[in-house]
Structure formats: C-alpha cells, structure tokens
Specification:
The chain is 26% helix and 29% strand. A seven-stranded mixed sheet has the order 5-4-3-6-2-1-7. A hairpin with a 3-residue loop joins strand 1 and strand 2.
Length: 171
C-alpha cells in the first residue's frame, strides 16, 4: 500500500488539463530501489512540495484517492533513503529534496529545503515527479498484486487513454 500511495498522489492532482492530458506513470522495482515516476500531471513546485511534506494535511482534489497516508510516510516505510525530483507544470525549475537517513532520529525535527536542479525543455507545460527510494526495508513487493490493484483502481483513466502505467517496462 505504501507504493500505491505514491501512485495515488499523482492521480489525486491529475485533471487532464493543467500539466498535460495524459498521465504517464512508470514504476521500476529492483532489489536495491523502487522508483515511481510520473509525467503529465501537475507536478509540484516548492509550495506544493512543502505542503506534501506537511504531516496530516490532505489536499486531495478528487475522490479517487484511496490511501491518504502521505508520500513521505510511504517512502520512509519502504526505505531509509530517498530522493524526490519534481517540476510544477507551469514552472521551469526541477526541484530536489533528499533524505539519506530517514531512521536517524538523533537530531531535531527533520526539515527539507528544495534545491533547484536542471530543467528539461521537453517537459515544458508538463508536471513531473520522481520518487526514488533506496536502502529498502525488508518487505515483500508483490508485483502481480500491484498490477491488479492499479489496473482496477485506474481502469477508467487507462481505458479512456488519460493514463498509462508501466511496472518494470511492462504495461
């Protein structure tokens, strides 16, 4: 369900107008990392990224959302290190935040300052988010279950051509 939360966040903000008419979601799962990447939604700028990091502040725009536990909790559940790259559909900057030791609670509350990175002209007018989780915790990732759940929940989007979803390159 933690992995599904990251996919759900993209669909929560997808409206088929702002940031693109088709949401492309690509998931790559290896023994060392999980990457959830989406292109064509709204994406996040610094304000949205900070809102997303805020615990207990759901900002869902439609009713398809199912998990609502928060992407940061999902990433921390899946692994102890992560990197987020995101670009809001109407802004030129690609932002990055990273966590190298989620489990380290030896200091004050963790805060994250988005750092601007490269922009990609090919993404002009499109939102983009990439969540790369590393140092994975020992969980069983049932790819067949994930495919079934994603196909059932987002069937309407898939059938209408408003979305495509791949897992390890397979639709």
């Amino acid at each position: 369900d933690a992995l599904l939360e990251l996919v759900d966040n993209a669909f929560d903000e997808f409206d088929g107008f702002h940031g693109g008419t088709c949401l492309e979601v690509n998931i790559k799962m290896t023994k060392d990392s999980i990457i959830v990447e989406n292109l064509g939604g709204k994406g996040m700028g610094t304000k949205e990224l900070n809102d997303w990091l805020n615990w207990g502040a759901p900002l869902k725009t439609d009713k398809i959302g199912e998990w609502g536990q928060g992407g940061k909790a999902a990433m921390g559940y899946l692994g102890s290190a992560w990197i987020v790259h995101t670009k809001r559909w109407d802004q030129p900057w690609l932002w990055e935040i990273r966590e190298d030791s989620w489990d380290d609670a030896s200091s004050d509350e963790k805060t994250y300052e988005p750092v601007p990175t490269k922009s990609n002209v090919l993404w002009e007018g499109l939102g983009y988010c990439k969540f790369e989780i590393k140092n994975l915790n020992k969980h069983r990732q049932d790819i067949n279950r994930i495919k079934t759940v994603l196909s059932n929940i987002y069937r309407k989007y898939l059938e209408e051509g408003k979305s495509s979803i791949t897992i390890n390159g397979q639709p």
